[in-house]
Amino acid sequence: MQDDRTESEWCMHREMCEELRAICVEAVGQCDEMDPKVRENKNAVGLIEPSRFDESYLDFLNGQIELAPRGPEWAARLKVRKKNLSPYVNRELAYCRFRFGAEDYSIYVEPISGKVIHWEHYDNSH
What we know:
44% of the residues lie in helices and 23% in strands. It is of the alpha+beta class. The chain has one domain. It has a four-stranded antiparallel β-sheet with strand order 1-2-3-4, with helices on both faces.
């Protein structure tokens, strides 16, 4: 597959990726609500990518909350996700994952403020 980007465009892309990573690492390290082992190991943040969603995602969450196909605990998690992400419809966010043993964190950062706006913890030890 051939990419039509110039060397300069690739350089700008790399710099943007590095900047986004730096923003996420800093945000995770500054998030007091985050587990201390995540904050202390913030440089281990893995996948980092731009993220954007529209009203259809909130509609999807509403449907899942109403149906509760994975039970009341999952529906409660989705309610928190919807509440935290609702103010950011159609805005560019940074999404990152942090894995530490069986611990897995899904984290959304608002890149302009450099703040974690939502995170979820998954325990994959079962």
